[in-house]
């Protein structure tokens, strides 16, 4: 396990070309299954794979894929450490890849930690093939994966501790306007821009403008981290 596939094409893609993906998982059978599913889509190109986090960092930095599917629990170096390294921006990359963390169980606290350090979302390993393809495209387009039920469960699991996060989150949310606060709560529930627009009687462009301001005000890199702030503040119970 852990061999690296030599890509048949380079990871550099044309603007309208397929989404390039690297798979990082210590189970060769899991990698083979993911490669078969994603490789069956003409709009996705699996350009490489690795069997642990250490090897994964090397492969990703060499191939520069758009998206990385990263297992969490692996030998030598786990996916959390590798994700932090890839998203740190210390290797001179113009733009780090989007990282989707993989897990077998939906109560894995490491998944939440990965979201906190900037991963674009997570997938259970038994995600149906069509949803897996959709998720890769969504993340590549800058739309982090938010599951209203499972993500909320994962975030809540570690965001209730008495470690100061609640007060910090509430202080950040206090800087928002009423409308921005409503949009933040909706994001915390996992709603899409279209769903937020329908619920709050706004146009989608207006929602996008609010989301952009939220990213700045909450010092967040993506929608997942906005949701984390909402959950940290204890406002995810409706």
Automatic annotation (TrEMBL):
GO biological process, one term: regulation of DNA-templated transcription
Keyword Transcription attached: yes
Domain Response regulatory: 20-140
Residues recorded as bearing 4-aspartylphosphate in the entry: 71
Protein name, entry field: Response regulator transcription factor
Keyword Transcription regulation attached: yes
InterPro entries: CheY-like_superfamily (IPR011006), NreC/VraR/RcsB-like_REC (IPR058245), Sig_transdc_resp-reg_C-effctor (IPR016032), Sig_transdc_resp-reg_receiver (IPR001789), Tscrpt_reg_LuxR_C (IPR000792), WalR-like (IPR039420)
Domain of life: Bacteria
Gene3D superfamilies membership: 3.40.50.2300
Organism this protein belongs to: Knoellia koreensis
């Amino acid at each position: 396990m852990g061999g690296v596939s030599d890509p048949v094409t380079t990871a550099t893609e044309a603007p309208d070309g397929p989404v390039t993906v690297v798979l990082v998982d210590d189970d060769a059978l899991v990698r083979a299954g993911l490669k078969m599913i994603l490789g069956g889509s003409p709009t996705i190109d699996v350009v490489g794979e690795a069997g642990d986090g250490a090897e994964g960092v090397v492969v990703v930095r060499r191939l520069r894929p758009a998206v990385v599917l990263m297992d969490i629990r692996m030998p030598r170096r786990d996916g959390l450490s590798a994700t932090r390294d890839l998203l740190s921006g210390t290797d001179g990359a113009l733009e780090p890849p989007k990282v989707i963390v993989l897990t077998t169980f939906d109560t894995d606290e490491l998944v939440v930690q990965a979201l906190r350090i900037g991963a674009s979302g997570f997938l259970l390993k038994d995600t149906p093939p069509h949803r897996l393809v959709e998720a890769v495209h969504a993340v590549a387009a800058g739309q982090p994966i938010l599951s209203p039920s499972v993500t909320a469960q994962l975030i809540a699991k570690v965001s209730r501790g008495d470690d100061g996060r609640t007060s910090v989150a509430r202080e950040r949310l206090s800087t928002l306007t009423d409308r921005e606060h409503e949009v933040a709560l909706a994001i915390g529930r996992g709603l899409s821009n279209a769903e937020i627009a329908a619920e709050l009687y706004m146009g989608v462009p207006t929602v996008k403008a609010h989301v952009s301001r939220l990213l700045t005000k909450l010092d967040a890199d993506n929608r997942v981290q906005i949701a984390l702030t909402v959950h940290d503040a204890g406002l995810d119970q409706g």
